[in-house]
């Protein structure tokens, strides 16, 4: 009997220890992020104090320039967790440009949210999170092209509020959210709220956002044409009382090896009325931007050479003699390290 009791005690101890170890394994704290820097030069425009760049966000500084340092702390439990995403540097500052109170005094928060997995099919997220619209994102590690598109640059960057994600089936998903006005992070400066929705089907997403009378409809998706060829797609329409934009971008990418991929972004972007994104000062201007990017990876380090040509319907740029011009050609060489 003594031996049986001893064995039972040891068995219960091992089971309890295993259960505690399993519970601890479901709790995971991680720290990751990236740093990036680049060199940029114009072929057909000045590269001194008169240097210009495409009207899209990021990678717009002349010569050798800094992107950002991105540090992401996250905790993942069985039911709950959080993400604290911090950014430092010019790209990070541009990413949080609309922080209404603290952007000029050193706000470094790109995302800050907590979440609760209510069930296997329902997740609630509360706080500040990057937008659900669009193909591209703020972090250079998740984009194939280093410079960003017009569609990304003039869509929303971030939202602060509450969103609910529903896994309707293995193929369908639904997101519903109520948020502060677009890009307002620390608090609500107007007392009005934005509402968003996303319907997903097998990696294809139809997005909708309405914000104080303005609204945006966005489609984001992509297809694996073969094992080495991928085609991404983004199309959007934004309207704010007759002023807005519409555009479409295609992202074909071909992997020549495990370490090198070449890709192209072809984008057509058109303003309604004088939205002001392209910078012509002429109503209903448009721009076609072609960006060819190579991506060579060495472990966690990626080098991206990139040639970009922006061609507008009206004078949006200047030439080397500071005369108005409809096109701009430029080159970027970026270095990105992810950890």
Automatic annotation (TrEMBL):
Keywords: Signal
Top-level division of the source organism's lineage: Bacteria
Signal peptide: 1-18
InterPro entries assigned to the protein according to its UniProt record, in alphabetical order: BBP2 (IPR011486)
Protein name: Porin
């Amino acid at each position: 009997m003594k031996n049986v009791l001893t064995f039972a005690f040891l068995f219960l101890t091992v089971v309890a220890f295993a259960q505690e170890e399993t519970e601890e394994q479901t709790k995971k704290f991680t720290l990751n992020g990236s740093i990036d820097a680049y060199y940029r030069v114009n072929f057909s425009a000045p590269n001194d104090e008169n240097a210009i760049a495409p009207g899209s966000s990021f990678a717009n500084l002349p010569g050798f320039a800094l992107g950002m340092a991105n540090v992401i702390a996250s905790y993942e439990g069985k039911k709950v967790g959080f993400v604290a995403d911090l950014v430092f540097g010019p790209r990070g500052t541009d990413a949080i440009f609309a922080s209404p109170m603290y952007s000029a005094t050193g706000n470094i928060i790109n995302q800050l949210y907590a979440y609760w997995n209510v069930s296997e099919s329902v997740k609630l997220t509360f706080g500040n999170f990057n937008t659900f619209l669009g193909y591209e994102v703020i972090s250079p590690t998740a984009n194939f092209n280093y410079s960003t598109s017009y569609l990304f640059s003039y869509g929303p960057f971030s939202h602060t509020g509450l969103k609910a994600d529903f896994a309707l089936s293995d193929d369908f998903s639904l997101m519903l959210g109520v948020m502060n006005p677009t890009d307002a992070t620390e608090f609500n400066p107007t007392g009005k709220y934005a509402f968003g929705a996303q319907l997903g089907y097998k990696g294809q997403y139809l997005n909708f956002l309405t914000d104080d009378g303005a609204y945006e409809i966005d489609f984001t998706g992509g297809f694996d044409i073969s094992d080495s060829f991928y085609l991404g797609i983004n199309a959007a329409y934004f309207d704010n009382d007759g002023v807005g934009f519409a555009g479409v971008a295609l992202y074909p990418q071909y992997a020549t090896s495990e370490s090198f991929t070449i890709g192209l972004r072809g984008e057509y972007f058109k303003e309604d009325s004088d939205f002001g994104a392209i910078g012509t000062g002429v109503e209903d201007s448009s721009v076609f931007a072609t960006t060819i990017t190579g991506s060579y990876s060495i472990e966690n380090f990626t080098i991206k050479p990139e040639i970009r040509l922006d061609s507008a319907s009206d004078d949006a740029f200047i030439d080397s003699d500071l005369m108005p011009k409809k096109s701009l050609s430029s080159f970027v060489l970026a270095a990105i390290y992810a950890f």
